[in-house]
Write a structure and sequence with these properties.
Elements: H1 9-41, H2 47-68, H3 72-86, H4 94-116, E1 130-139, E2 149-157, E3 161-166, H5 172-179, E4 187-192, E5 195-196, H6 202-205, E6 209-212, H7 225-235, H8 240-253, H9 269-282, E7 287-291, H10 299-315, E8 319-323, E9 335-340, E10 343-348, H11 350-354, H12 357-362, H13 369-379, H14 390-398
Parallel strand pairs: 3-8, 3-9, 6-7, 7-8
Antiparallel strand pairs: 1-2, 1-4, 4-5, 9-10
Helix pairs in contact: 1-2, 1-4, 3-4, 7-8, 7-9, 8-9, 9-10
Bound molecules: adenosine-5'-triphosphate and magnesium ion.
């Protein structure tokens, strides 16, 4: 083994992901076997049925144990050790060999911990710039129900701000729950930054994702704002020494740094939602979903949260999905997804979407206020269109 053939952190990461996957399959087949045995005891199935699941379980166990026995980390360590042993302190590369020895030793230790923790802690990386790729996603809540999401395909590049609109019951929330992995699609594939989402990697994929829901009161766990933001970090086993800075930075992003020791329930609706956003941001998700995050707030709270969403958009560090009934909000978006009866019926820029107002009305959607005024002016013979906000519209009117 030459120097450049030594293992790296990425090898350990791959090992963890593999072990995590096989452990997941093992747990799953174990559960299936228990169910099969219970059915057998109630005479609902025959012995063959149990044997089939028993074989599957044995195979999953063998695969898992085989993967645990991976000898490459010890071989790598032994190799580094022998190279160091054969070198003299006066050799030019002695320090490099010593560093390699220490590194290989740490990797071997990492391997042992990974086996003990059954592959916990493997990381997925962004493999491309496509934040989310949905391929023919279908979902129904029950077998005898119609599809709540019915064949949605879309590709969203990193850094986009996407508004999702649609009448009540059109499948927006269901789709967001599928994206964050709370619901498993009945059919179709999902890729997050090029990583195909599977049953066994969904927990790892979730690290890319954060969500802020509608009701600010349902999102609190901690007794202070600080505890609340810390909760998700503890779940992710973030080192305690790093937590304080992460919490303060997240609170600053939503302008709540002066409220860290306050009780969440004593805050205003807008402040609560800002804390919910901070809790999500603390986990550094690449994709942030807002499911009607402003709909239960008073006008002041709405504006506070909308302002934060625009600030987040302007950094272009995150891909943002905003599910909204507030049609004025779509003007801020880069792309708009229009849902109707579980289907993605239109996808385009706000201008493209608003160019067909009759279509929007036909699926019971309002038109943004600015677009309504433009339409009224157009009916009076004035050529005004495409204003992104009220100020722009006023400017255009003044120029006539
Ligand atoms: N837990 C559930 N069990 C059964 N059916 C459900 C469940 N949640 C939603 N549905 C149904 O799935 C369909 C899509 O609902 P979903 O909540 O995704 O729509 P939505 O676009 O988010 O609506 P809204 O604008 O009202 O929030 C609807 O027909 C709804 O009745
Ligand atoms: Mg909804």
């Amino acid at each position: 083994m030459s120097n450049n053939k030594f293992l790296k952190d990425t090898d350990l990461n791959e090992f963890k992901l593999k072990l995590n996957d096989l452990n997941d399959k093992l747990t799953r087949s174990g559960k299936k076997l228990v169910i099969a045995k219970s059915k057998f005891s109630k005479r609902e199935v025959d012995k063959e049925f149990v044997i089939k699941y028993s074989e599957e379980y044995k195979q999953a166990k063998a695969n898992y144990l085989e993967a645990c026995k991976d000898s490459k980390f010890i071989d790598n360590f032994n190799n580094a050790k022998s190279q160091l042993k054969n070198a003299k302190k006066s050799d030019d590369n002695y320090q490099d060999l010593y560093n390699q020895y220490k590194y290989s030793k740490a990797l071997f230790k990492g391997y042992k911990i990974a086996v003990k923790e059954r592959g916990f802690g493997g990381e997925l990386y962004a493999l491309n710039n496509v934040a989310l790729k949905l391929d023919d996603i279908k979902f129904k809540y029950r077998e005898d129900h119609p599809y709540a999401v019915n064949g949605v395909s879309v590709e969203i590049e990193h850094g986009n701000y996407v508004a999702i609109i649609g009448h009540n019951g059109s499948g927006k929330s269901t789709l967001s729950k599928i994206i964050i992995g709370v619901l498993e699609p009945t059919k179709g594939n999902i890729e997050v930054y090029g990583n195909k989402v599977t049953k066994s990697n969904i927990n790892i994929v979730r690290k890319f994702l954060g969500i802020v829901f509608q009701n600010p009161d349902n999102q609190f766990i901690g007794s202070t704002v600080r505890d609340d933001i810390a909760f998700g970090l503890e779940n992710r086993r973030i080192e305690p020494s790093k937590m304080s800075d992460i919490i303060i930075n997240a609170a600053k992003k939503v302008n709540m740094q002066d409220f860290l020791d306050h009780e969440p329930l004593m805050l205003s609706g807008g402040q609560k939602q800002r804390v919910a956003i901070a809790s999500a941001l603390a986990l550094s998700p690449n994709i942030l979903i807002f499911d009607e995050a402003t709909s239960m707030l008073d006008p002041k709270g709405k504006n506070e949260v909308k302002q934060i969403m625009i600030e987040l958009k302007n950094t272009r560090e995150k891909t943002i999905f905003s599910i909204t009934h507030d049609m004025d909000e779509i003007l801020n978006a880069d792309k708009v997804m229009v849902m109707n009866k579980g289907q993605l019926v239109k996808f385009g820029t706000p201008k493209e979407i608003l160019s067909d107002k009759d279509f929007l009305r036909s699926i019971n959607l309002d038109i943004p206020f600015v677009a309504q005024v433009e339409e009224a002016l157009q009916n009076l013979g004035l050529k005004i269109s495409g204003s992104e906000n009220l100020d722009e519209l006023v400017d255009k009117i003044c120029q006539i």
